[in-house]
Amino acid sequence: MLVLQALGALAMLTVWGMEMHAGVSTPWDRWLLPGCAAVIGLCTALTLRWPALEPSLRVVPMGTFNLYLVAALHASLAFTSGEEQRYQVITNLFWVPLGYGCAFVFLRLRAALVVSGLTAAGIFVPLLWFAQQHRLPDWLIGDDPLLPQVALSQAMFVALLTAVVRLRSSHDRAQAHVALMRELAVTDPLTGLPNRRGTTDRLDAAMAMVARHGQPLSVALIDVDNFKSINDRYGHAAGDAVLHRLAQTMQQATRATDMLGRWGGEEFLLLAPATSAPAAGELAERVRRAVAAQAFAHGEPVTISVGVSTCWSADRVEALLRRADDALYRAKAGGRDRVEPSASPGAAVSA
Q1: DSSP 8-state secondary structure symbol assigned to residue 50
Q2: Residue 308 DSSP class
Q3: Is the separation of the CB atoms in 223 and 305 below 8 Å?
Q4: What are phi and psi of 189, to 5 degrees?
Q5: Contact (Cβ atoms closer than 8 angstroms) between residue 184 and residue 242
Q6: What is the pLDDT of residues 107-145, one digit of tens each?
Q7: What's the pLDDT at 185?
Q8: What is the DSSP letter of 52?
Q9: How far apart are CA 290 and CA 252, in angstroms?
């Protein structure tokens, strides 16, 4: 928008310079053209300096330009004659569609229609009325339907701009809807975390980075201890509240580079890129402690068991998850509320 404003001011100064050089500038254009360019340039500069003024200043350049077109056209009809009048009127009519375009660029659709309608009315209502009174020059109201064609072409231009804006708006809404559907397809609605599909996609991408760069990737398979008893004793609403709060607690305990997803039911999968086995064990232990210290709405503590596994470039997703699942099983068998490392060499030490 600011670039268009700057170009508009430059265009007005260019027209002013050309007409002054050719000796065809009217007395009012000698002042109005540079004056309008100065107003538009000032609005551009103020917006650059104070962006918060943009909503208030947006209408000024467009309004200045449209008012100039209306005033200059009628001034040319009233105070010039002959070839000078013909030149001034035709050149003004050339620029009128740009005034409509500015309205549709700078304003919302309804406001743009109002401004365009007022501009067209300010130009053509007096022209048509003067034509009925035979007070317009012959070249404008002769046997050729010049004036009606100009009015009709500009009306069609406004209709086209309206259609373009509406189509663009419909396209934007459709794109936003598609983006929302894609997000919902990979997001768990209860916790707001990536669901199994979304987590799998990110795991595949992380494994591809491991193969490319050779950095380790650690995963932690997390299971809520005795979750069934929470549902049985307090109801599924309480169980859902536990999962929601649990997701928040675990996310707060992870790093910005980690990714936590809901793997299914009361299971979660934590991805820790570029994280060695010992560091992954420390991360999982921090998450476990955060959950154990958290108060839950149903009034009883909640604990988690965690199985940690680390892979390198030669590993596969299935093997990585199988080792994490085996480690989780050992954590459950070992008394729960604990972190258990993978049995592979170099895994994290047990908490």
Answers
A1: -
A2: E
A3: yes
A4: -65, -25
A5: no
A6: 888 888 998 999 999 998 888 788 777 777 777 776 667
A7: 84
A8: G
A9: 9
Please name which of 59, 47, 56, 41 lies closest in space to residue 115, comparing C-alpha atoms. 59
Per-residue pLDDT tens digits for 244-302 = 999 999 999 999 999 999 999 999 999 999 999 999 999 999 999 999 999 999 889 99
- Kindly report the number of other CB atoms within 10 A of residue 240's CB atom: 13
| Contact status, residue 290 vs residue 251, Cβ threshold 8 Å | no
Phi, psi dihedral angles at 66 (to 5 degrees): -65, -40
Q: What would the two tokens of residue 229 be? A: 């008893």
Q: CA-based angle 336:342:347, to the nearest 5?
A: 120
Q: Are 106 and 40 in contact (CB under 8 A)?
A: no
Helices (H) and strands (E) counted in the chain, each on its own, are 13, 5
Residue 82, by phi and psi: left (phi above 0), alpha (psi -120 to 50) or beta? left
Q: Do 302 and 272 form a contact (C-beta atoms < 8 A)?
A: no
CA-CA distances (angstroms) from residue 351 to 230, 310, 327?
25, 16, 12
Which of helix, strand or coil describes residue 174? helix
Distance CA 61, CA 5 (A): 7
Catalytic (active-site) positions = 266
Q: Which two tokens stand for residue 257?
A: 């580079």
For residue 80, count CB atoms less than 10 angstroms from its CB and return exposed for 0-12, middle for 13-18, buried for 19 or more. Answer: middle
